[in-house]
Fold:
Amino acid sequence: MKRVTVHDVAAEAKVSLATVDRVLNARPGVKAATIERVHAAVEKIGFTRDQHAANLAKRREYRICFLLPSGDSAFMQELRAEVESSVSVERQQRTFIKVRDILPFNGVSLVDALDAISAEEFTGVVFIATDAPQVKQAIKRLADRGVIPITLISDIPSSARAHFVGIDNTAAGRTAGSLLGRFVYPAGGKVAVIVGSMLLRDHVDRRLGFEQVIRTEFPGITLVPSMESNDDNTVAEKIVDELLVEHPDLLGIYNIGAAKQGLLASLKRHKRDGQVRVVAHDLTDDSKEALRGGAFDAIIHQDPPHQVRSAIRLVRAYADGRSFLESQERIRIDIFLRDNMPD
Amino acid sequence: MKRVTVHDVAAEAKVSLATVDRVLNARPGVKAATIERVHAAVEKIGFTRDQHAANLAKRREYRICFLLPSGDSAFMQELRAEVESSVSVERQQRTFIKVRDILPFNGVSLVDALDAISAEEFTGVVFIATDAPQVKQAIKRLADRGVIPITLISDIPSSARAHFVGIDNTAAGRTAGSLLGRFVYPAGGKVAVIVGSMLLRDHVDRRLGFEQVIRTEFPGITLVPSMESNDDNTVAEKIVDELLVEHPDLLGIYNIGAAKQGLLASLKRHKRDGQVRVVAHDLTDDSKEALRGGAFDAIIHQDPPHQVRSAIRLVRAYADGRSFLESQERIRIDIFLRDNMPD
DNA sequence: AGATACATGATTTACGTACCTCATTATATA
DNA sequence: TATATAATGAGGTACGTAAATCATGTATCT
Structure:
């Protein structure tokens, strides 16, 4: 059971090793007929290139830059921790990862960071896109310089980014709507939405999907006009306070952004936790605790470790012009209840 | 920016290459003090062994055998398809995969298959465990022969298997209970459970978890005694027919096994699809269709591609005595609604 | 026919680690 | 002190592919 190597292919096709190499690596200077012969030989003896040997010989290296907001939301912290812990793992596969900080909610800072990256320095850049024309242009410049741009969490669909790693946020909103709708149905009644910022595309999309579903499928439910927390706990707490006072019959809340602590604090103070059905985003320590205690009913989640690994694999795949497994790179819209929480 | 190699470690530690090699590969014949020096040097200059070069030099090969039931449930078919499609991908990483058929629901067939495997032939075996003492003993013999046993989907916890790849089925049952409970609550009323076979540990566990949650958290809900479909559509259809006739006020069904077509057929014939809330297992073409049409409300799922990849990675990790990323190998209990279905 | 471009062969080096052999030096044991 | 044993060094080969160089053969064109 010896391994099938390029030498065997050469023998089988009755050509030299050099020609096999030319064919396999799509180098010029080989007749079409010869190319065919080599391919036939590959098929016949079942040759597959040894990835380890190939990578070693190619002495390929991948340098990836992650641009992460210096904000301190639990979700971002987990993402950052995941990136940092992948540094040593990925180094074994010749992938060198650097993290650069940018200011959160700040398009200019992102544009500056993108413009500061050269193809000599980095193979690809992974970042959370802010939906602004300047960012779009910066992505274009980046791609033109030969750096692979990968958007994470939040996308700019019509930009020059090679790939988006993240969930379909409209679908996530619809999912939240389906859940919360069923939870408060058939009683019917009022449901409120709290967004982080209407400037973030993912938040906007989530709200859109949520309202779609509620309006079309749960006609018994009334939507209370949504408010912006700016992902700030103090603001969120005030919003919920007012909400609970003004609508004592409130049945459910969909919390689109971060600032879950503020929401929880208000619910608890009004002794409405466990009564009002809550669907929120991102499985963090806070929300796990709230799920356990019954204050939250469901969490919509996108797995940070998976997203980080996926982004890294995608940079390598695009750099090599390789294809990749669609199914492995699709980020799922995870639903967590108390009972299917990890740990 | 040159790569840090073993040579650099040798220079830094002021020892020969041979000694560095002895230390890194834990070979005997090195003083404790010298080992320390080498480790210190590794730390200082940040050396990480190049996996590609290492694997190449080691000329390591992994041979993995998947034992799959020849049954034709959609879930098993997807699993099998995934294994087969991974053959060519994994070959590039020197992993050779073979599939062997065994009879479904048949412990003897599994035991025979396990006993027929030698360490010369295979590095590891991946199989769906049937919970029987004979199987447990066969696993022990297998492990003693030096083959790595990995259980998939269904486990025997106290056996000699190296690892279990799959979900916690009690938790899956609880998850189903939480969902269905909330869906039919606060109306209260009757909910029925249909199992595939009480001989399968995963089915038993699911029912257990489901009943736990319903009993403790949704006291308004009455559980209709559960019945066995043996994963047969004709049987399942008959069961549901009787159920719907006997309990016209039935609010929900938890379908634990396969045989979803029978369930659907009966519901449709009685024009109760969309009325009765249904939670079932495994996202297949049938259940996707049913989710879309509103006949099913939620599907509890375990991702076959992920499980196959995980099993393969685990065989390699155990074979090399390496550690692995817990988080990457944990199989999630996925919840799918119409709105977060893939595709 | 001679120049020219194209197609192919023959051969070599490099990648970074594993692993083997043989020689040499340091340390412990009798 | 002689001898056994442990610890280390020096050096080489192999793994399978990539990539380069130089030589040689063949067809094409004016």
Notes: Chain B has a mean pLDDT of 94. Residues 61-166+304-331 of chain B form a domain with the Rossmann fold fold (CATH 3.40.50.2300). Residues 15-19, 22, 29-31, 34, 53, 55-59 of chain B lie near DNA strand D (CB under 10 Å from a C1').
